[in-house]
Structures are given as structure tokens and as C-alpha cells.
């Protein structure tokens, strides 16, 4: 089993908190793109999705993936998968510092090779504003890429008065763990 060499220092966590707070100030929660504001808006044409996938038991090597689909017919327009070696450990609330660099690289490869296929919105496997400091992976990627991003997390964070309880489980179909 491969693991990160050591947990982050308190100094590093403080640095990450500070960086999150600075970047949080740059989050735009309004429509910013011409296609969003145009009276002749005819709908989305391209949506993207990003994720880092891991081999079970390996916390260092992952596959960074970007897929762009046509919308609404969801035909694959572009795929990018690259094995990467993570340099930051997993720390709850700081997933962006572990994953964002590789997701940004995937978006940059697309922008360089086929800019006309850049997604109009990116779905991110992680939280956005629904985060301990209202700045999860989706916000981080959105600010740094300049693209509208939506967080689509698999796990419910216990923040802002939301708890993983039986009531939430019955409403979402999620299991309480």
C-alpha cells in the first residue's frame, strides 16, 4: 500500500485556510457568461465532468479525468485521462489542494488542443459552496479555471445545520455512515 509520507503540518493547514479565504472572495455566484445572459440563449451545448479516480489502497497514484459531452444529447466530444502522482495528502475540507492542479492541467490540455470544445459548465466530483468554509473543490476549480463549476459530491458534509441523520437519509436515499 502506498501512502503519503506524513500528515500536513499545522502551518500548511493554516496556509491552505488562508488561500481558501482569499480565493473565496473571487467566487462569482451570478451568471457571468454571454450565453447565460443572452436573450437568445438556446441552451447549453457542452458540459464537462472532472474527477480523480484512485486504485483501492493507493493514496498517491490516481487517474485525472475530464470528459466533455454535447448537450442535450450527451455524446462524448472529448476525453482526457492521465495517471498522476499526488503531492498533497488528503485532509478533510482541503480536497482542492490535492486534486485541483491535475484537473486544471486537464482543462488546459483541452484549451490548448481543441479550444472550441471547452465546456460551458463543469460538473466536479466534490463540494462547491456547500463546504465547511463555503469553498470546496468545485469553487476552487471554478475560480482558478474561470469556468462555471457545479459541485456534485458523493458524501454529505455535516455543515450549515445539515446532518447525516435518518430524516436526510429518507429524503435523499443516501445511506448514513
TrEMBL record:
Keyword Hydrolase tagged: yes
- This protein's UniProt keywords: Cytoplasm, Endonuclease, Hydrolase, Nuclease
The keyword Repressor belongs to this UniProt entry's keyword annotation: no
Q: CDD domains of this UniProt entry?
A: Endonuclease_V
Q: Name one Pfam family in it.
A: Endonuclease_5
Location of this chain's protein in the cell: Cytoplasm
Q: Show the coiled coil region(s).
A: none
Query: Could you tell me which InterPro entries the record lists for this protein?
Result: Endonuclease-V
Query: Per its UniProt entry, which superkingdom is the organism in?
Result: Eukaryota
- Name of the protein: Endonuclease V
Amino acid at each position: 500500500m502506498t501512502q503519503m509520507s506524513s500528515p500536513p503540518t499545522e502551518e500548511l493547514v493554516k496556509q491552505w485556510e488562508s488561500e481558501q479565504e482569499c480565493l473565496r472572495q473571487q467566487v462569482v455566484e451570478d451568471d457571468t457568461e454571454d450565453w447565460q445572459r443572452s436573450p437568445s440563449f438556446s441552451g447549453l451545448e457542452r458540459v464537462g465532468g472532472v474527477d480523480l479516480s484512485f486504485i483501492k489502497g493507493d493514496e498517491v497514484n490516481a487517474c485525472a479525468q475530464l470528459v466533455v459531452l454535447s448537450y442535450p444529447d450527451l455524446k462524448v466530444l472529448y476525453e482526457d485521462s492521465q495517471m498522476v502522482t499526488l503531492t498533497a495528502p488528503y485532509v478533510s475540507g482541503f480536497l482542492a489542494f490535492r486534486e485541483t492542479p491535475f484537473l486544471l492541467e486537464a482543462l488546459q490540455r483541452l484549451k490548448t488542443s481543441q479550444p472550441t470544445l471547452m465546456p460551458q459548465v463543469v460538473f466536479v466530483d466534490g463540494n462547491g459552496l456547500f463546504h465547511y468554509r463555503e469553498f470546496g473543490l468545485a469553487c476552487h476549480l471554478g475560480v482558478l479555471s474561470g469556468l462555471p463549476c457545479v459541485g456534485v459530491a458523493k458524501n454529505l458534509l455535516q455543515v450549515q445545520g445539515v446532518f447525516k441523520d435518518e430524516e436526510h437519509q429518507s429524503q435523499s436515499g443516501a445511506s448514513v455512515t
